What does this fold into?
Amino acid sequence: MFNFFLKQLLLRKTLHENKGLEENTHGNGNMPNDDSGDLFAGLEENVNQLVNMLGNSTDIVVRELVIGHETELKAVLVYISGLVDSKIVNENIILPLMGNPNLQEISKYKTVSFLKSTILTVGIVREEKSMHRIVSSILSGYTVLLLDGSREVLLIDTVGSVQRDISLPTSESSVRGPQEAFIENLASNLVLLRKKIQNQNFTVETMVLGKQSRTKVSVVYLKNIVNPDLLDEVRYRLGKISVDAILGSGYIEQYIEDAPFSPFSTIGNTEKPDVVAAKILEGRAAIIVDGTPFVLTVPRLMIENFQTAEDYYSRPYYASFIRLLRLAAFFISILSPAVYVALTTFHQELIPTPLLITMAASREGKPLPAVVEVLIMGVVYEILREAGVRLPRPVGSAISIVGALVVGQAAVEAGLITAPMVIVTAVTAIATFVVTPLTDAAVLLRFFLIFTASILGGFGIVGGLLVVLVHLCSLRSFGTPYFSPFAPLNFNGLKDSIIRMPLWTMLTRPTMITWDETNRQKAGFKPEPPDEE
It folds into this structure.
C-alpha cells in the first residue's frame, strides 16, 4: 500500500514538472517550465547574457537590425547557424522587418505583440520572457527577436536542420507493404504516422530528457483507445529518467523495461511507420526519440517476434504457414547444437544405425569431445557474424564467404571438427536469421541449452526449456502478460497468434492491451459472391 501511494506521488510530481511540455501538435518542441532569469530592459544586456549562456560559441549568429525609417528602433536576431533554415530567416523575418516602410508605428507600442500579429510571416511565433526557455529554444533551432526597451522577446520557429530523405527500411524489408522507413528527425516521423492515422484522437505528448543532451521524446497514442493506466505508467517511467544524455531509443528502452535481466526484450522497436500505426490502433503507445529512426512500442508480447507486417498483406493460409515456419526456425536455432550434443554423447541409440556408423567414422581420430566442438563452432560463428555486421558491407560479405567456405572446410580437413558439426552450425546460423527480433535471445538460449545437454542429455534440454517457459510466463510488459494470449489463455487473442485468421474475423482489439474500447469492426464483412437472380 505504501509503495502504491509513493508511486502516485511520484507520478503527480512528474506530471507537474512536465506541465507545459505536453502538446497535441508535432510542429514545435517543448521547453523547460522555468520562470527564473527574466530579461532586462536594455537590449545590449540581454544579448550579452544570451551569448554568455550559450557558451560564446562561434556558430552563434547575432544579427543587428534597425526597424522603421523614422523611429529607427534597434532590434537583434539571435540564432545558431546550421540549426535554422536561412531562407525562413531572410525572407520571413529580416525582409518584412527591414523592407516595410510602415513600421514607424512600432514606436507607439514598444511591444513585440505588434510585430507578431502584423509583420512576421512565420507560422509559429510566441512571446517569451524567461531567459532559460529562450536559451532552450535557440538550442532547438528557434530564432529569437529582441527589441530595445522590451522585456519580452519573440521565439520564431525556424528549425531547418539537415536530414536525410525518407528511404527504404533496412532491417525490415517488405515485398508488398509500404516501402518507407522512419528517419532521425522527430517532426518527420510524426508526419509519417499522421499520414497513416488521420484521426482527431491522435495525440502527441512531448517532453525533454537528458540534462545535457536535451533530447525531445514524444509519446504517441489514440486517446479514445489507449488504456489510461498504460499511459500513466509510460509517463511515470519516462519521468523517472534523470541522466546526462539520451542519444537514441535504445537508451530509453533500458531505463523503462520491465525485466532488465531477461534475455527477452519487453519493449518493441521498429523502423516502419505502418507497423507503429497498426500497434497504436490496437491500443498501444509509441515512444519516438529525436535523432533515431527506431520507434519503441509498449506493451510488447512474445508472439510479436514471429509476426511481420507482410503477414497482413498476404492470404491467411500462407501467412499462418510462414508464422509456423518462423516458430520452427526459432526452435531449430536454439536446439540444434544441444540436440547434437545430447545424441552423440548420451542417446546414441536414438540415431539410425547407418547414420550412427557414418557419424562414428567421422569422429574417429578427432581429439575434442562433441560439446567442445559445439562451443568452439558457436563462438567462431558469432565472431564471424559480428565481423560481417560491423565491417563495411562489401568487406563483410567477403568475411562471411571466407568463414563459411575456407575456415569450415579447413577445420574438417585438419581433423579438428567433424563434418556433421559444420552442417549443424550452418543450419543453426540460417535458422537464426529467420526470426531477427529474437537473435540476441537465441544466442544466449543456445549456449544455455548446450550446457544443460552436456550434463543431462535430453533430460537437460527438457529441463532448460521448462525453465525458459516458466520465465516467459512470469514476464510482464507494462502490466500485460508477456506470453499472452497463451498464458493466460485468451481465445480472442488466438485469432492473431501463430495462426492468422482472416481479417474479417478479427472483430475486437487484443483485450489484454485495450480493456475498454475493444471493438475494432462490425460483424458481417465476410466476402461472399453476389446472389444469382
